[in-house]
Specification:
- By secondary structure, this protein is an alpha+beta fold.
- The strands form five sheets. The chain has a 16-stranded antiparallel sheet that branches. Strands 26-25-24-23-22-21-27 form a seven-stranded parallel sheet. Strands 28-29-30-35-32-33 form a six-stranded antiparallel sheet.
- Helix content is 18%, strand content 38%.
- Helix 4 packs parallel to helix 5.
């Protein structure tokens, strides 16, 4: 029997066929369909698409009818396209492994179809669509070979959201360090606002979610953003500047993850559509916990004695790395950077060091050591010689094509010298962690570092921390620099239980633990032992429960153990409910660490759990819990 939802779909297609050619692409399970509306075969026109999602008996428009098209400096491919043919549907299926991220073993499985167009100047444009069981991706291709340079100036690509959709969107900032405030179309006030990726939204009164982003940026692309110019529900792809390339050329993949909120959190669509690894030897790439100096000591890296204390902390906490941050080139008070590195090596701790990318508007040094291939070769060779394992590169200047080329050049050259990379003050992840697996983490988040800058995070941290697992951290490793118990310049009011749980809730291939050594040394043994052993790379990730800004419970697996982190995003006490459906048969021990009698204490216990166990955990306002299942 045909469901009511599918009958509605057939009706849509039937009605479309009277006025326009409508093509459907769907994954074999049929939950997601793309309806592509093509211009009449004899009349050039625009191309549009919509995305449908079937949930139980309801068929929903996740993306309402939206424009497609792209513009070059020499001519346009918008509103003047003639449909000339299409490929057969082909299956895309490959498996790959990630060193960092929410899942080690990943599958890229989709149905792909290419649509061929010519504009009124007889120039060719292809649009490739892929449909997954939990999302959609599409890109533009200029397939004809040519020696002449192209200048791609922009796109007509639009995402028309369902009216009154709940949404969590970050106003655009080049460093992607803003909040994701909740809004609806009705509450949108700035009609010319630009937004950075990713964008999360939920259909009104339905448990259907979508996350918009992009992936597989190459040296021939800039990174885009979304602009909402006249309609509060319509968001157009916008370029920061033109992208220059020879033909053939392809855009980045435009992606929409679709499904339940748990599907959003578990999705690997960003790396699925990205190019496979270009680094052949990856044995030297090792995720790990990092002792980080900057947060508690703004300019601590130029003080040799402070650096030594953080190296000693890494030894005590069984963390493999120490990051020596800015101004290490002017280190004093008893030693130089070479002394610090030698001290770390004598303690079997692997040092990493910070670089200014070369921007003229930020003063911290060392500056301008990476901007050319010759400078990188000289610097990276020196790092190999003295025994440095990775670099943190900070203060990038926007999303234009030149910056994309700079990021990729750093990753490529760093791989030649077996250096791991952490980008700060940088663009949001767009799949490079698959292509260049030495990319361990990226900031692109309003993280704990902001306690040093303004008082705003003090009151907003709990809501923000329970929004990030559904937004920023979905698309790639996130260097939030978490798990702080003492205060920096401005206090935080999240509980100790909340802070400890961030080690599991936030995923980062290099997890920089930011607090001062005295704070970690004074922790009670259960919390301290947890931080000594918690992994930073995972075999699997599952959302147990959550809602943006209110709560989140995430389970992550490493080998035969599950780690669970739960956060209360509210200013009131809240009971979080943990189910254990992800467990196999048998009885397990859950070593639980949760809020104690106040926000600066813990309570710990061991609980026997099974697959059908339902556990209710009381959390303080802005509280949390974490634990290990063995």
């Amino acid at each position: 029997m045909i469901s009511a939802a599918r009958q509605s779909l057939f009706l849509i297609l039937f009605l479309c066929s009277f006025c326009i050619d409508a093509q459907k692409i769907s994954f074999p399970d049929g939950r997601i369909q793309v309806i592509l509306n093509l211009p009449d075969k004899n009349k050039p026109d625009g191309v549009s698409y919509k995305v449908l999602y079937e949930s139980e008996t309801t068929l929903s428009e996740v993306v309402r009818e939206s424009k497609l098209g792209i513009t070059r400096e020499d001519q346009q491919f918008v509103g003047n396209l003639l449909f000339v043919g299409q490929s057969e549907s082909v299956s895309v299926k490959d498996t790959y492994e990630m060193i960092c991220g929410k899942r080690k073993h990943c599958e890229n499985t989709a149905i792909e179809k290419t649509f061929h167009f010519k504009n009124t100047n007889n120039q060719t444009l292809d649009i490739i669509f892929r449909v997954y069981n939990n999302g959609v991706a599409f890109r533009y291709v200029f397939p004809d070979a040519s020696d002449s340079k192209l200048s791609i100036t922009g796109e007509a690509t639009t995402y028309s959201l369902p009216k009154k959709a709940d949404r969590w969107m970050q106003p655009y900032d080049p460093s992607y360090e803003r909040f994701f405030p909740y809004s609806t179309g009705e509450s949108a006030t700035d009609k010319a606002q630009q937004y950075g990726f990713p964008v999360l939204y939920k259909l009104q009164d339905q448990p259907v979610w979508a996350l918009i982003s992009e992936a597989d940026i190459s040296k021939e692309n800039c990174a885009a953003r979304l602009t909402n110019t006249s309609n509060a529900d319509e968001y157009q792809i916008t370029y920061p500047s033109a992208a220059q390339s020879e033909q053939p050329w392809h855009s980045q993949w435009h992606t929409v993850v679709i499904g339940k909120l748990s599907d959003i959190v578990a999705s690997t669509l960003i790396t699925d559509v990205s190019a496979p690894s270009r680094v052949k030897d990856i044995q030297w790439i090792k995720p790990g916990a990092v002792s980080w100096i900057y947060w508690a000591n703004n300019r601590g890296s130029k003080d040799y004695q402070i650096v030594k204390d953080y190296i000693d902390l890494a030894v005590e906490m069984n963390w493999p790395y120490v990051l020596i941050d800015w101004e290490w080139d002017v280190m004093a008070n008893g030693g130089s950077i070479i002394d610090a590195i030698n001290y770390a090596k004598s303690k079997s701790i692997k040092p990493m060091i910070w670089y200014n990318s070369g921007t003229s508007w930020m003063e911290p040094t060392p500056n301008d050591r990476l901007q050319t291939a010759e400078k990188r070769a000289k610097e990276f060779s020196w790092l190999n010689k003295i025994g440095v394992y990775g670099i943190k590169v900070d203060f990038f200047a926007g999303d234009q094509q030149e910056m994309m080329q700079y990021y990729i050049a750093i990753l490529e050259d760093a791989a030649k010298y077996h250096l791991m990379v952490n980008f700060h003050g940088a663009t949001v992840p767009r799949g490079w962690a698959r292509t260049y697996p030495n990319l361990m983490s990226t900031e692109a988040v309003y993280g704990a570092e902001w306690y040093n800058n303004t008082a705003e995070l003090t009151d907003k941290a709990a809501v923000h921390n329970t929004t990030l697992p559904f937004t920023r951290n979905v698309v790639g490793s996130m260097d939030y620099t978490p798990v702080t118990f003492s205060n920096s310049q401005h206090p935080h009011i999240t509980s100790y239980g909340h802070e400890l749980a961030l080690a599991v809730v936030f995923e980062s291939g290099l997890q920089h633990f930011a607090d001062r050594p005295s704070a970690y040394r004074s922790l009670p043994e259960p919390a301290k032992e947890f931080l000594k052993k918690v992994p930073v790379s995972w075999d699997d990730t599952q959302l147990i429960d959550g809602y943006p800004g209110e709560k989140v419970i995430i389970a992550r697996k490493k080998a035969d153990k599950w780690y669970i982190g739960g956060l209360n995003g509210k200013d009131q006490a809240q009971t979080l409910t943990v189910t254990f459906d992800f467990l196999g048969k048998g009885t397990y021990s859950f070593e639980l660490i949760k809020d104690g009698k106040d926000d600066k204490s813990f309570s710990s216990e061991i609980i026997k759990v099974k697959k059908d166990t339902v556990l209710k955990i009381e959390c303080l306002p802005r509280g949390g819990f974490t634990g290990v299942i063995k």
